[in-house]
Amino acid sequence: MNVDEEVQRLREEIMRLGQAQTDGSYKVTFGTLFNDDQCANIFEALVGTLRAAKKRKVVAYDGELLLQGVHDNVEITLNPTP
């Protein structure tokens, strides 16, 4: 799976696990994503996929590097599709 495919799968997983917002975005915490069994089976490196998605402006979150435990409550926003 290449990076673009992983980012697309990440979009799908955030929509599955997250809460829809009125502006068309979705919000989910890092801990929810990290601890989900389906996500664990899809993403070998969830943090790397999140960083790639952030660079492409697909998602937004505070900070650069998210770590399990420390950043479980960090909110990840899936930006609405234009």
Automatic annotation (TrEMBL):
Coiled coil: none annotated. It holds the Pfam family Costars. Residues 1-79 form the Costars domain. SMART domains: Costars. Belongs to the costars family. PANTHER family: COSTARS FAMILY PROTEIN ABRACL. This is Costars domain-containing protein. It comes from Stylosanthes scabra. The lineage of its organism: Eukaryota, Viridiplantae, Streptophyta, Embryophyta, Tracheophyta.
